[in-house]
């Protein structure tokens, strides 16, 4: 069996700013060695190496997504969805559906009731489930953070993840300054997703309509699980939003 390669290391080493920092550390170490020799030429080389190394470590930073792009993701069609769910009196929390033979992209199903019986397997064109086929009533829409996730995936250059490795991949959101922290933990028969750095969540019905950044993270988890991801509960802990997830693995 081939040893599993860390997705976090593959993401990091592919990013120029990380390679620059590693080179900076090497230069600092080389500089210290030269400084210990105490002759004039070695001191000059040592000081130069240390200064250049420190510059590369502390001054070369990671490229971030332009603020206006992330802001556009936040504004998106979230308000429209809020109006629709209010008019339709939808009560249930969102269920994130993975790609399938029917769907070319992930979808988000918002059921009519708080405890839906079964989720319809809807394609890209279907929006309303009327319940006539025995499945739960509700609406199916693209996740509000889908475009943002595609940007993050392009920046990180990671194309595949699993539930075992997705938490490492989610650190890309932190590296791109979209979040302060994110953690996914398996706890008994459910999963806990902790997200910090999305102030808009404090005023939002996160369980039913996560903000685009949280939606992007939840879609990433769904993409990794390749199974429906049910939001069973949400709560705020200071600046953190904690999602309780049910993933049928």
Structure write-up:
The chain is elongated. It has eight helices and eight strands, in the order αααααββββααββαββ. An eight-stranded antiparallel sheet has the order 3-4-2-1-7-8-6-5, with helices on one face. 41% of the residues lie in helices and 18% in strands. α2 packs antiparallel against α3, α6 packs across α8 and α7 runs antiparallel to α8. β7 and β8 form a beta hairpin. It has two domains: 52 residues; 184 residues, no CATH class. The protein has 249 residues and is α+β, with helices and mostly antiparallel strands. The two termini are 23 Å apart.
Give the uncertain stretches in residue-range form: 1-5, 7-14
Number of strands: 8
Shape: elongated
* Strand order, sheet with most strands: 3-4-2-1-7-8-6-5
| Sheet with most strands | 8 strands, antiparallel
Tally of alpha and pi helices: 8
Q: Rounded to an integer, what's the Rg over CA atoms?
A: 23 Å
The SSE order reads: HHHHHEEEEHHEEHEE
- The average pLDDT is 78
Q: What share of the residues lie within helices?
A: 40-55%
| Content of β-strand | 15-25%
Compute the number of structural domains.
2
User: Structural class from helices and strands?
Assistant: alpha+beta
Give the end-to-end Cα distance, rounded to a whole number of Å.
Answer: 23 Å
Oligomer: single chain
């Amino acid at each position: 069996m081939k040893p599993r390669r860390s997705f976090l290391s593959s993401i990091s080493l592919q990013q120029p700013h990380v390679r620059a920092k590693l080179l900076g550390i090497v230069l600092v170490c080389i500089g210290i060695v030269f400084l210990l020799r105490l002759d004039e030429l070695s001191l000059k080389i040592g000081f130069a190496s240390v200064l250049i190394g420190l510059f590369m470590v502390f001054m070369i930073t990671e490229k971030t997504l332009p603020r206006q792009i992330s802001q556009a993701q936040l504004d998106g069609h979230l308000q429209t969805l809020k109006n629709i769910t209010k008019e339709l009196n939808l009560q249930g929390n969102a269920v994130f559906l993975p790609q399938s033979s029917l769907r070319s992209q992930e979808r988000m199903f918002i059921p009519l009731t708080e405890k839906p019986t079964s989720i319809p397997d809807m394609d890209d064109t279907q929006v309303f489930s009327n319940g006539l086929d025995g499945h739960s009533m509700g609406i199916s829409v693209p996740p509000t953070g889908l475009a943002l996730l595609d940007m993050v995936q392009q920046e990180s250059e990671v194309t595949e993840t699993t539930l075992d490795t997705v938490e490492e991949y989610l650190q890309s959101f932190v590296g791109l300054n979209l979040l302060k922290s994110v953690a996914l933990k398996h706890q008994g028969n459910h999963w806990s997703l902790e997200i910090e750095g999305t102030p808009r969540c404090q005023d939002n019905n996160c369980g039913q309509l996560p903000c685009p950044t949280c939606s992007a993270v939840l879609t990433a988890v769904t993409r990794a699980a390749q199974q429906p991801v049910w939001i069973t509960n949400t709560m705020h802990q200071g600046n953190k939003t904690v999602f309780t997830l049910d993933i049928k693995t």
